[in-house]
Amino acid sequence: MARRRLLLRLGIATTFVALLVAAPSPAFACPISKIVAGVCTTDTGAKSGKDGVDIWGTENRTVPGTHGKGSEDGRSSVSDGEQDDSGAPKPEPIAWPVVCQDGHIECVDIPGPTTPSSDPAQPAAPVVVTLRDIASFTPAEPGNGMQPGGWAITGLPVNFVAEASVQIVSGTLLGQPADVRFTPAGYRWQHSDGATVQTGHPGATWAALDQKEFTPTDTSHTYTEPGDYTVTLEVALTAAYRFAGSDWQHIDGTLTTTSEPRNIRVGQMDTVLTRTDCNTAPDDPGC
């Protein structure tokens, strides 16, 4: 059976017109009821990339054929030349509009026309239409919290807390719902003074840890020199996906999502003796 193949790559929702010979246009979405009934079969898979996860799907659907002389495998046939076997001119192709979803790649195998049969009573042979789709899912950037907020004192620990949790990103694949679940698995803080802090947990505030302020934690860092610094948080994620209500399927590998650099002003602290509280008497000697 001859087929025409059309590959569409879209950045925005666009309507493309492909020159194809007229045939009934199948819908892209395969209802779950038809999957269960065996009318259409769907195969899916997923892969972690640098910035997210791609899920691919292939759908094979049996649709009624048109009357034709058929081929040895029971499927309809078509001539790809300018004339058919009888020497009659081949029909001119007509415009076939195909509308695709934003951000998807669609590869559609559409059966060509059949040669008119001399026996109109001959039943039409069924044909198989193959649809392919790919959808991308990107996790949100993590938040990079710190205590105290935005400043530090040389020689005293600064406590960092990652703001990242399990997130589910939803979309569609082959017209059916698809979800990717991202789960944090590791945390790494890259400091501009060259230090790196890496843990298997996001950290917690001093209050949550029942610790005094400016005490060391698993995620803290101590600056030794005053100045302006930055810190960037990287979170390693594992991923799983589900399609059309299926169970969660684990995706091999991990990916990393990175926060925006956070600015930190580091100063020095001097200890002096005063005769009273400088907050109540700021003009007192030593204040």
Written account of the structure:
Helices cover 3% and strands 47% of the residues. It is mainly beta. The protein has 2 domains: 3-137, no CATH class; 143-267, Immunoglobulins (Immunoglobulin-like), CATH 2.60.40. Strands 9, 11, 12, 13, 15, 16 and 17 form a 7-stranded mixed β-sheet that branches. It is rod-shaped, with a radius of gyration of 32 Å. Residues 1-28, 67-84 and 91-112 have low confidence and may be disordered.
Give a quick summary of the entry.
It comes from Agromyces terreus. This protein has 287 residues and is mainly beta. It contains two helices and 17 strands.
Counted up, domains total: 2
> What is the makeup of the main sheet?
7 strands, mixed
Query: What is the N-to-C order of secondary-structure elements (H for helix, E for strand)?
Result: EEHEEEEEEEEEEEHEEEE
Low-confidence stretches: 1-28, 67-84, 91-112
Q: Mind telling me the C-alpha Rg? A: 32 Å
Distance between the termini: 92 Å
Give the DSSP E fraction (strand runs of 2 or more residues). over 45%
> Structural class of the secondary elements?
mainly beta
Number of strands: 17
Oligomer: single chain
Average per-residue pLDDT, rounded, comes to 74
Number of helices: 2
Helix content: under 10%
Based on Cα principal axes, name the global outline: rod-shaped
Question: How are the elements arranged and paired?
Answer:
Layout lengths: L2 E7 L5 E6 L11 H6 L2 E9 L4 E11 L30 E6 L5 E7 L15 E11 L5 E5 L3 E3 L3 E7 L3 E7 L2 E16 L4 E4 L6 H4 L11 E2 L4 E17 L5 E10 L3 E6 L20
Parallel strand pairs: 9-17
Antiparallel strand pairs: 1-6, 2-5, 3-4, 4-7, 6-7, 8-10, 10-14, 11-12, 12-13, 12-15, 15-16, 15-17
